[in-house]
Structure formats: structure tokens, C-alpha cells
Write a structure and sequence with these properties.
Elements lengths: L1 E2 L7 E3 L8 E3 L1 E5 L6 E6 L13 H10 L8 E4 L6 H9 L3 E5 L10 H4 L7 E6 L2 E7 L3 E6 L6 E5 L5 E5 H9 L2 H10 L10 H24 L8 H13 L9 H5 L16 E3 L9 H6 L9 E3 L4 E2 L4 H8 L6
Length: 326
């Protein structure tokens, strides 16, 4: 989710997101070990997304994995995306997958919905290369996989205690956090600024994502020691992007006045307000100069200067002051 609270048809609200509840929703494909971002698709809304009879989650995964079919990759996802239909279609394209699944999902074994499971018990069903597993720990968990195994393995929980869990559950726990890991690295350096333009938010998110991907490649492939940490790498990258740029000294007053309005002709006489032809509207250059977040558009302008101006004090201020912006 890219945080954004302006007006746009792509803006979504997700209540359980901690960093950003309002923003642009993204479908992301990431490496489970490093957090490297391979693919990003922008969610365009229910009316604009390609529809599939198998649901939104099915289509999102198929679109993300399309460049990686027939390469024997393995993809892990949560219950929002998982369905038997998705498992079968990915397997047909030489792509393995694992995911938690809702027991009532279409195509799931009917016995999973009604069978009571005690803690430690496991039930397994297999069909056409896809294995369905129902296992109970503190609560019942159902999974689908094309590569996992129901045999139990020894591992440690978050408190350091040794526990016995199915192999497929252990694999799911170790391969599920790729997107979250990538988000953690991105949020460290994503600029937090206000903008009324959605494309600016997406642009900077993509730039930071590319910078994080570059750091991951540097960290995992560069052989010279010692290596820079993430912060030093990011600073070095910024300096390299800036290069030898130098900003010359400019008068602050002239910087506030747009180029097309620097002519002193606007300070002469015989300027009159009129309605903009064809029902068009413009921003008042005086109001916009004092408050760049102001979105109000007006129907009045100065026909000679070709700029929008409020008929009250703004028209007088623009034509009587050299610097009309406070």
C-alpha cells in the first residue's frame, strides 16, 4: 500500500494496515529470502481489473507470475489468494505453490468443513498433484501445496521451545514473509511528503524500491569487504545520482514569480476581468501562489494576461504589485 489521501479513483482503504490505511493498493511479487521485489502491479479497482471466474486473488497471482511460468519456481501466498483452481493452473505451467486456504473455498474436500480436529491431529487429501492438509495446533489450519509433505519435523517456536509441526507448515512459515521483508526495507527510506498528485507517490515508491533492490544485489553479490550498510549505500547512491550538479544563486523574489508572468506589462493600465470562454475554469495565480494545495478553480481571468484571477483583491493585487505572492 502506497500512502495517499488525495482524490483519485484508485485510492483504497484497508483498515488492518498499520503504516498506511489510505492509499494505492499494489500486488507485489518478492523473493522470500531477501525481500527483492520482482514484480509490481497497481490495483486499478474492481471495475477496471481483468475479471476471472475464479476471483480477484486468482487473477492477481496469475498476472504477477506470468513472466515466470515454466521455470519450476515456487510461490507462497495467504488465504486471500489460495484456491484449488489456482493450484491446478499454476502446476500446469510448471510452477509450484503453497498457501493457507479457507476450508469452504470451492473445490476443497467436503470432509474438511465438518470433521472435528483435535490438537496435533492431521488429515490429508490428495488430488491431481495437489495436497490438502487440515492440521490443528492452537486452532485448525488448512493448507494447499504441490510440493510439501505432511510428515512432522522438529523446529523451534518464537519462545525457543522445540515443537513438532508438519513439513508443509514449516515451509510456509519460512517462505511467506518476502513481501513484508521488502516493505520493511522500503519504509526505512521512503520519503514522507504530502502531495495532491497520485503519480508522485507512485514514482517515489518505485524509485525507493529500485534503490532497495540495488542494495540487495550489492549486499549478496559484491565480494569486496567491508561492505557498506543500507544507510551508507543509500547516501552514496543519492550522491551518484546528483553527480556534479550545482545550483546557481537566484533571486528569491524572481523564483516566486512564474516565468510567463515576469513581464511588467501586467502592471500597466487597461486590464479588465472577464469570464473565461467555453465554460473553462482556471486556478487563481495569486491564491495558488500563497497556498499550493488550494484546488478551487474559478471562471474569471484577465484576458490580456491569460491568467485566472479572483475578481476581488486578487485582480487588483496582481496588476499593482511586482511581487504579488506573500
Amino acid at each position: 500500500m502506497v500512502g495517499f489521501k488525495g482524490r483519485h479513483q484508485l485510492k483504497q482503504y484497508i483498515a488492518n494496515k498499520k503504516a498506511h490505511r489510505w492509499g494505492i493498493k499494489l500486488w507485489v511479487l518478492s523473493d522470500s529470502n531477501t525481500g527483492y521485489t520482482h514484480q509490481i502491479n497497481v490495483y486499478k479497482g474492481r471495475r477496471n481489473e481483468r475479471r476471472s471466474p475464479n476471483g480477484l486473488g486468482y487473477q492477481a497471482v496469475m498476472d504477477l507470475m506470468e513472466p515466470h511460468f515454466h521455470k519450476n519456481h515456487h510461490v507462497t501466498y495467504d488465504s486471500f489468494f489460495t484456491s484449488p483452481a489456482l493450484m491446478y493452473d499454476l502446476l500446469d505451467k510448471s510452477t509450484h505453490s503453497t498457501g493457507t486456504v479457507i476450508k469452504t473455498r470451492k473445490g476443497m474436500p467436503a470432509s474438511f468443513r465438518t470433521t472435528p480436529v483435535q490438537k496435533g491431529e492431521i488429515h490429508v487429501k490428495t488430488r491431481a498433484g495437489v495436497m490438502a492438509i487440515l492440521w490443528a495446533d492452537r486452532r485448525a489450519v488448512s493448507l494447499l501445496t504441490t510440493t510439501g509433505s505432511p510428515r512432522f519435523v522438529q523446529t523451534t517456536n518464537g519462545k525457543g521451545r522445540e515443537i513438532s509441526i508438519p513439513s508443509v507448515v514449516d515451509k510456509y512459515n519460512h517462505t511467506m514473509g518476502g513481501v513484508d521483508l521488502g516493505d520493511q526495507l522500503i519504509l526505512q527510506f521512503e520519503p514522507q511528503f504530502k502531495s495532491l498528485k497520485m503519480w508522485r507517490k507512485l514514482l517515489f515508491h518505485c524509485l525507493v524500491t529500485a534503490a532497495v533492490n540495488a542494495y540487495i544485489c550489492y549486499r549478496d553479490t559484491f565480494m569486496v569487504q567491508p561492505k557498506m550498510n543500507h544507510l551508507k549505500f543509500h547516501h552514496q547512491l543519492c550522491h551518484e545520482l546528483i553527480g556534479g550538479f550545482r545550483q546557481g544563486n537566484r533571486n528569491r523574489q524572481m523564483r516566486l514569480v512564474p516565468v510567463q508572468h515576469r513581464s511588467l506589462a501586467r502592471l500597466s493600465e487597461r486590464h479588465f476581468p472577464s469570464i473565461i470562454p467555453e465554460g473553462k475554469r482556471k486556478k487563481c495565480v495569486v491564491c495558488a501562489g500563497n497556498d499550493r494545495f488550494k484546488k478551487t478553480r474559478i471562471q474569471w481571468w484577465c484576458e490580456d494576461c491569460k491568467v485566472g484571477l479572483c475578481v476581488n483583491q486578487c485582480f487588483k493585487r496582481y496588476h499593482t504589485r511586482l511581487n504579488y505572492v506573500d
